[in-house]
């Protein structure tokens, strides 16, 4: 098509040697090994020549029209070149093979500031900080964007020598937009899964608040059966289960007794939080369950008592409540909500309390860390094997990822798609599977 355009412009009066100069410009651009850049150099060179050389008006219009079409057609390639994630000529194709696993993971900004991590949006930061563009406009505009590939994790290499490449896909919705507009969020998650499939991925994971949309991924999987979808719940629960014994041991080593301690679980209506409650119940003297549905909480508490009695284990005093203020009595607090904003503030925590925060974004406000003797422990953080690199800050520390992302990688590496996490139920055998396979592949839970 481009060669035909060059010929057409030559017929319109562009000197032959100048048309060759345009092709030479494309060849020079190819030295960058970006094929898209070389393709764009051709219509750009033609458009410039029509300005500096005498050609007919229709030819000038055609050249600039061709440039506009080419820029629009390659807009994602341009953005990926800016972000450093566009494949280069000569690199191995990013497709699944015996030595390479390719998966995708859906992310979203936690704050407006996260929008500007991507070079494609960084230019707009000054417009917002200066008040030229209101933040409310940014949020409204973000609802118009379809999912896009904004990053890539490389350098993850399993113990058996396979490389895992993970594309980071984002539709720039903030947490409160995802929770307040479930239909839009589900649509964007479905579009993200389709994009992952087009990129050659075998598995797509739903991260953070994407994990709760579309019946926790179930509707997304039904809409895009060509790719495996997981919400990452099984390995997230597994990392929590693995971390709690160490936390409790450290708590006792500080001179305090678990049997005399009061523990609180925030978000106890959820799968992960109630799993924590089951694990710690026989070890503490009093257990406070905090959630949003009192009837379900009371049923869960009754089930918990019955299971402990049946197993002959100690039964703590169990309290169910909707009031977050009740956790001020707790020595140990475990939190795993899906709230887009912090739910635990200084007035809810007594001095000296230990808090295990599994929330993404964090359930614990930063100001809580200033309380005397309070220790806040982040949960669900995993370090993949190898030397992982990426172009975005995922807010989990250098070289670390959330457990739900790690589950996506493990699922793609193992091909055990029947183990994927969908819906609200998480089977104990799947939790154990991911814990065991993560260990075998070289994934490590961050203490």
Automatic annotation (TrEMBL):
<keyword id="KW-0560">Oxidoreductase</keyword>
<keyword id="KW-0472">Membrane</keyword>
<keyword id="KW-0594">Phospholipid biosynthesis</keyword>
<dbReference type="InterPro" id="IPR036291">
    <property type="entry name" value="NAD(P)-bd_dom_sf"/>
</dbReference>
<keyword id="KW-0812">Transmembrane</keyword>
<keyword id="KW-1003">Cell membrane</keyword>
<keyword id="KW-0444">Lipid biosynthesis</keyword>
<feature type="domain" description="Quinate/shikimate 5-dehydrogenase/glutamyl-tRNA reductase">
    <location>
        <begin position="256"/>
        <end position="377"/>
    </location>
</feature>
<protein>
    <submittedName>
        <fullName>Long-chain acyl-[acyl-carrier-protein] reductase</fullName>
        <ecNumber>1.2.1.80</ecNumber>
    </submittedName>
</protein>
<dbReference type="GO" id="GO:0043772">
    <property type="term" value="F:acyl-phosphate glycerol-3-phosphate acyltransferase activity"/>
</dbReference>
<feature type="transmembrane region" description="Helical">
    <location>
        <begin position="34"/>
        <end position="51"/>
    </location>
</feature>
<keyword id="KW-1133">Transmembrane helix</keyword>
<keyword id="KW-0443">Lipid metabolism</keyword>
<dbReference type="InterPro" id="IPR006151">
    <property type="entry name" value="Shikm_DH/Glu-tRNA_Rdtase"/>
</dbReference>
<keyword id="KW-0808">Transferase</keyword>
<keyword id="KW-1208">Phospholipid metabolism</keyword>
<dbReference type="Pfam" id="PF01488">
    <property type="entry name" value="Shikimate_DH"/>
</dbReference>
<dbReference type="GO" id="GO:0008654">
    <property type="term" value="P:phospholipid biosynthetic process"/>
</dbReference>
<dbReference type="GO" id="GO:0016491">
    <property type="term" value="F:oxidoreductase activity"/>
</dbReference>
<feature type="transmembrane region" description="Helical">
    <location>
        <begin position="6"/>
        <end position="27"/>
    </location>
</feature>
<dbReference type="GO" id="GO:0005886">
    <property type="term" value="C:plasma membrane"/>
</dbReference>
<dbReference type="InterPro" id="IPR003811">
    <property type="entry name" value="G3P_acylTferase_PlsY"/>
</dbReference>
């Amino acid at each position: 098509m481009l060669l035909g355009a060059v010929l057409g412009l030559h017929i319109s009066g562009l000197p032959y040697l100048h048309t060759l100069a345009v092709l030479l410009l494309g060849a020079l651009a190819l030295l960058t090994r970006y094929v898209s850049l070389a393709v764009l150099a051709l219509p750009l060179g033609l458009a410039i020549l029509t300005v500096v050389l005498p050609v007919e008006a229709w030819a000038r219009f055609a050249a600039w029209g061709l440039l506009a079409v080419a820029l629009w057609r390659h807009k994602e390639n341009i953005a990926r070149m800016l972000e450093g994630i566009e494949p280069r000529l000569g690199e191995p194709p990013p497709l699944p093979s015996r030595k390479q696993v390719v998966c995708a993971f859906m992310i979203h900004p936690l704050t407006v500031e996260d929008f500007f991590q991507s070079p494609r949006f960084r230019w707009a930061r000054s417009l917002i900080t200066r008040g030229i563009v209101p933040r409310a406009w940014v949020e409204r505009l973000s609802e118009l964007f379809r999912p896009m590939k904004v990053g890539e994790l490389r350098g993850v290499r399993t113990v058996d020598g396979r490389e895992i490449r993970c594309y980071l896909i984002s539709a720039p919705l903030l947490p409160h937009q995802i929770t307040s507009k479930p239909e839009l969020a589900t649509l964007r998650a479905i579009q993200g899964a389709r994009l992952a499939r087009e990129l050659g991925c075998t598995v797509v994971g739903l991260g953070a608040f994407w994990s709760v949309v579309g019946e926790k991924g179930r509707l997304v999987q039904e809409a895009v059966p060509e790719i495996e979808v997981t919400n990452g719940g099984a390995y997230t629960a597994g990392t929590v289960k693995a971390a709690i014994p160490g936390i409790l041991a450290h708590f006792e080593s500080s001179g305090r007794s678990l049997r005399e301690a009061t523990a609180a679980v925030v978000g106890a209506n959820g799968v992960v939080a109630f799993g924590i409650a089951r694990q710690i119940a026989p070890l503490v003297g009093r257990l406070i369950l905090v959630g949003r549905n009192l009837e379900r909480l009371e049923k869960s508490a009754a089930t918990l008592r019955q299971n402990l009695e049946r197993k002959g284990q100690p039964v703590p005093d169990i309290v169910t409540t909707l009031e977050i203020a009740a956790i001020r009595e707790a020595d140990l607090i475990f939190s795993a909500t899906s709230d887009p904003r912090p739910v635990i503030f200084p007035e809810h925590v007594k001095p000296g309390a230990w808090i295990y925060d599994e929330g993404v974004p964090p359930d614990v406000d930063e100001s809580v860390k200033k309380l005397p003797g309070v220790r806040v422990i982040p949960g669900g953080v995993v370090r993949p094997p190898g030397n992982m690199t990426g172009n975005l800050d995922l807010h989990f520390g250098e070289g670390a990822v959330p457990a739900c992302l790690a589950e996506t990688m493990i699922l793609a590496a193992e091909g055990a798609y029947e183990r994927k996490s969908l819906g609200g139920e998480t089977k104990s055998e799947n939790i154990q599977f991911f814990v065991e396979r993560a260990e075998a592949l070289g994934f490590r839970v961050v203490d």
